Structure formats: C-alpha cells, structure tokens
Amino acid sequence: GTTRHYKFDIKLQNVTRLCQTKSIVTVNGQIPGPRIIAREGDRLVIKVVNHVQHNITIHWHGVRQLRSGWADGPAYITQCPIQTGQVYVYNFTLTGQRGTLFWHAHISWLRATLYGPLVILPKRHASYPFPQPEKEVPIIFGEWWKVDTEKMINQAMSTGSAPNLSDAFTINGLPGPLHNCSAKDTFKLKVKPGKTYLLRLINAALNDELFFSIANHTLTVVEADAVYVKPFKTHTVLITPGQTTNVLLRTKSKSPNATFIMAARPYATGPATFDNTTATGLLEYENPSVSKAKNKNKKLQLLKPVLPQFNDTSFATKFSNKIRSLNSAKFPAKVPKTVDRRFFFTVGLGIIQCSQNQTCPNNTMVAASINNVSFVQPSTALLQAHFFNKSKGVYTTDFPANPLVKFNYTGNPPNNIMMNTGTKVVVLPFNASVELVLQDTSIIGAESHPLHLHGFNFFVLAQGFGNFDPKKDPAKFNLVDPAERNTIGVPSGGWVAIRFLADNPGVWFMHCHLEVHTSWGLKMAWVVQDGKGPKQKLPPPPSDLPKC
Ligand code: C2O
C-alpha cells in the first residue's frame, strides 16, 4: 500500500446558514470537512494541529485499527485530548477493509461541525462486486444548530436539562430550500441519463436516525458500514448516526422534464420531541429537453419523494433485516461459530442523582446506561492506564455481564429505576468469541439506540421485539449471511443479538451514537488483552500521544 498524508488544521471559521452567521470549529475551514480517499492496504498519516480553544480528538469511524488503538480517537478512552496549540499525528493502516466510512471529532459535541467522508477504494485492479459506476458521490448528513453547540451541551449537562433540538438537518453541509434563506444552500447532484451512480451515504447527524429517498428513483443497496451486502432495491434508506450505506442510483434512460427532490428526515421512536424538519437536495439531469427553444415557456416539474412516517418502526425493522452479508467466495462472512463469552446488556434511559457540580430540579436528572451503569468519563485515557498497568483509580473491571436486577424490560418500569455510575470495563482474553444481546428498555420510554462498537465489526445474528428469550430466540440466529457492521439500531422495544471476535488488543469504546445519549452515559469499554504471538500485541504508544 501507499502512505497518504493529510493535514487537519482545526480552526474557527465564520459560516452562514439559516440566515445567521456563526463562528464554528472546522477542519481546514470546511464543512463538511475534507474527504479522505485511500485504498485498501494504504497507510494514513493525518497530522492534526489544534488552533482553537477547545480540546480536540478525531475518530476514524469504522476503521478497525488493528493493533493501532492509539490512533482510534475517542477522548479519555484511547487518548487524552489534543489541547490548544498541540499536534498529534494519527498513523494507521487500512487493513482488510474497503468501502465508505467517515471521520469525526470524538469529544463533547464537536462532531456537530467536525466530520467528513473517509472513502476506502478497493485495491488497485480489484473491482466492485457490482457494475462499475459512472461516478461516486459521498452524501453526508449532518445537523445544524443556530446556537453554539459546545455552550449548549455544557449548560445542559450542568443543569440536568435536555439540550436544544437542532434547527436543520443538512446534506453535504446544506439544509436545502425548505429552510429560510437556504435556497442557495442546496446540494445538487447533476446526472446524465442512463448511467449508474454510486452514492456513499453517511449519517454524521448527532441525534437522529434518518430516512433518505429520491423522488421517482429506486436505490439499490450494495454495502453497509464498508461491507458488501446482497444487493436489494428500496425507495427509502434508513440510516442511523454512525452507519454508512452505499447505494446504486440508476438514472432514467432519457433526460426527463423534471427535477427530483432528495430528502432526509428523522425516524424517531422516543418519548422525547425530535427535530421534525426535512433536509432536501436536488437531482438534476443534464440537458433536460425543456431547455430546448420550442419548450421555452414550460417549467421543469419538481417532484417530491414520499418518505415513511416518522415513527414507522415496521419499515425500520424490515429494512434492517434485508441487510445481509454478500457472503460470496471472494467476500465470505466469517461468523464466529462458537462462543467463549456471553453477555446480556440492557440499554436505555433512566434517572440519576445529580452530582455536586450540577444544579438540577429535585436533585435528579435524566441519564442513560448499559446494564444500569451510567459511564463516568475518566480524567485520563483508559488505554494508557491499561497499557502501563495503572488502572487503579482510573477504571474497574466489574462491568456486569448481565443486568443486576431483572425486570420486564419492555413493560412497565419497575419502582426503583435509579442507575449507578462508574468507569467500568469488561476484560476479554485475546481472540475470545463474544456473543452479546442488546436489550432496549422502556424505563422512560422505548427508543431505538444505534449502538456503535470501536475496533471490530460484529455480525447481526437476529433482532426481535419484547424481551429476549434465551431459550427460544437463539434458534433464530443467522450464522450464514448476517450483516457485518459497526453500528446497529437496537430496536425500539426489542433486542438485537451480535457476535464478534476479540482479535484486536486494546481498549474499545461501545456507545449509543446519539450524542445526547452518549453524554448521558450510554457507553462502556471493552479491554482486550494481548495475545502471546508477536502479531497479537498492542505496540507502545507513539511519542507524540497527548498527555492529560
Ligand atoms: Cu462514530 Cu465512538 O464513534
């Protein structure tokens, strides 16, 4: 592979959206940030220079980081933040992966403006398992707030209140014409008739799963989370924060007298209100026939897509079930066939006691947890503590493998819903095969949670509604062609079962990719021990690794 160098200057930039100008934190002054394009097997060397008054880290979402955990990026998990004026070089190899991923800030809510595509092309001369597209187009969804998101989340966390909803969703940084002053802030995709385009869809939004559709066009899903899938056709794609989906768009054989709207809007299941706005962009054909002189007075028709209802869980479930590994001879699904460690984790929202530095009404606030443990961010990085055998006072290894109190998870909440807090991890021996059932709870209300695992891809064996039944449900597990991915929506009022092989030594974060839930504590970490072999150990950290 080649070594590719990038420089990320973290700096402020004035940006105008929705009739207002504000100063935002950017990479190189751009929003979305720069596209990283590499090939499978390449090494990426990305020098991040922090020129702003915020602590920064960058995460390469979905990159496996085989024995390069020091470059993974979640703040206080694998590294201390890059402070003002400091530099850190992320250095890692893209091993055994190709497809669409993305990068984003992994500290506080800076992902709101620090995000961009990370495209891994197949090795030179290797082809796609589908027709070579005319053109490849990254389409990255984001969210825009008129307020300063860092001030907003800091205030929300210190008062126990919920942060503001965003003012718009964006397509490649642009909200589109349904919003005030945004007609010129509209993403336009220009296409030729009779061609195939590869759209690399990425959901970098902070707090919403999104439906995406293009009027009068069918999309063929060919890849999810940088893994090829069995192609299937759909009019709408559901994509959670943290997920990426490649779709083929086949354009009409002749340029129609129309412009087609593409739209992204939330899939929302929770009891809380959600940002019920729609981001739109345009699909425009080159040389539509009306531009010819005799049709001068005819206007192009503007066609709108029909999206599912905001709470269409039935669509969400069907869509998620359709995603199956391609599992061809060339791209086999390597599902672990045996299990060394079994875990059952409840995920959901609950109530927590306020700490001294907070001022909350009734002294309680909403929090989120896994197995009733609301994760407390340590003040130094877990990976350093683990590597240098200094875990004492940083983390404990007693993260529960099962809920401490069993209850009817999807039924009425039990009386005592108070959560615990702690910086607890699960320790796994090298190469352990892990089976994990993630069970949604409805203590405050059933809600879909997009769970993301760092350092691994996992296989999605099955999902269902109600409480997972350990006697009956394992019979439904798909061990042949399950989806292989890094982020999965735990169904609202249901469960999902996954498996992964712990073949990557280090400390790996797992969390809900809805930023508000991460802030509330819906996160934990796995510590994977070194193996015996030379290629089974985490090397020491680079000399420029930031200190806390
Ligand atoms: Cu895309 Cu831990 O995140």
TrEMBL record:
Cofactor note: Binds 4 Cu cations per monomer.
Family annotation (Pfam families): Cu-oxidase, Cu-oxidase_2, Cu-oxidase_3
Reactions listed under catalytic activity: 4 hydroquinone + O2 = 4 benzosemiquinone + 2 H2O
GO molecular function list: copper ion binding; hydroquinone:oxygen oxidoreductase activity
Enzyme superclass (EC): oxidoreductase
Localization annotation: Secreted, Extracellular space, Apoplast
Gene3D superfamilies cross-referenced by the UniProt entry: Cupredoxins - blue copper proteins
Gene Ontology BP annotations: lignin catabolic process
GO cellular component terms listed in the entry, alphabetical order: apoplast
UniProt KW keywords: Apoplast, Copper, Glycoprotein, Lignin degradation, Metal-binding, Oxidoreductase, Repeat, Secreted, Signal
Domain Plastocyanin-like: start-end pairs: 11-123, 136-287, 399-531
Keyword Cytoplasm found: no
Classification via PROSITE patterns: MULTICOPPER_OXIDASE1, MULTICOPPER_OXIDASE2
EC number(s) given by UniProt: 1.10.3.2
Cofactor: Cu cation
InterPro entries given in the database record: Cu-oxidase-like_N, Cu-oxidase_2nd, Cu-oxidase_C, Cu-oxidase_fam, Cu_oxidase_CS, Cu_oxidase_Cu_BS, Cupredoxin, CuRO_1_LCC
Function (record text): Lignin degradation and detoxification of lignin-derived products.
UniProt cross-references to NCBIfam families, sorted A to Z: laccase
Family: Belongs to the multicopper oxidase family.
The protein's name in its UniProt record: Laccase
